[in-house]
């Protein structure tokens, strides 16, 4: 399942599409996106999403992204991640 990654800066700016993410698959996005799937030393992966509007930088481990998918979320607002 693909999750739409967005940012609203906690409601401070209009919803902005950052990228689409499908954990465990090849990633694709829009030109206005900075998203990386970086391999960690322990062999896992970390997803990094950066909003070009407010410069919010969110990093999520792949296992946490899989939990988002398993919970059935279709959209994830990175500004609401603590």
Question: How would you characterize this protein structure?
Answer:
This protein has 82 residues and is mainly beta. 11% of the residues lie in helices and 38% in strands. The chain contains 1 helix and 6 strands; from the N terminus they run βββββαβ. It has one helix spanning 62-70, and strands spanning 3-7, 16-21, 34-39, 45-50, 57-61, 75-77. It starts with a strand and ends in a 5-residue tail after the last strand. Mean pLDDT is 82; it is low at 29-35.
What's the SSE blueprint?
Blueprint: E1 3-7, E2 16-21, E3 34-39, E4 45-50, E5 57-61, H1 62-70, E6 75-77
Parallel strand pairs: 1-6
Antiparallel strand pairs: 1-2, 3-4, 4-5
Considering the chains and any ligands shown, give keywords for the structure.
82 residues, mainly beta, three-stranded mixed sheet, three-stranded antiparallel sheet, 1 helix, globular
């Amino acid at each position: 399942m693909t999750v739409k990654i967005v940012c609203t800066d906690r409601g401070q700016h209009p919803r902005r599409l950052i990228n689409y993410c499908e954990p465990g698959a090849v990633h694709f996005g829009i030109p206005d996106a900075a998203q990386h799937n970086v391999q960690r030393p322990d062999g896992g992966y970390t997803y990094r999403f950066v909003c070009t509007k407010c410069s919010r930088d969110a990093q999520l481990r792949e296992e946490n992204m899989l939990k988002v998918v398993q919970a059935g979320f279709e959209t994830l607002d990175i500004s609401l991640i603590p």
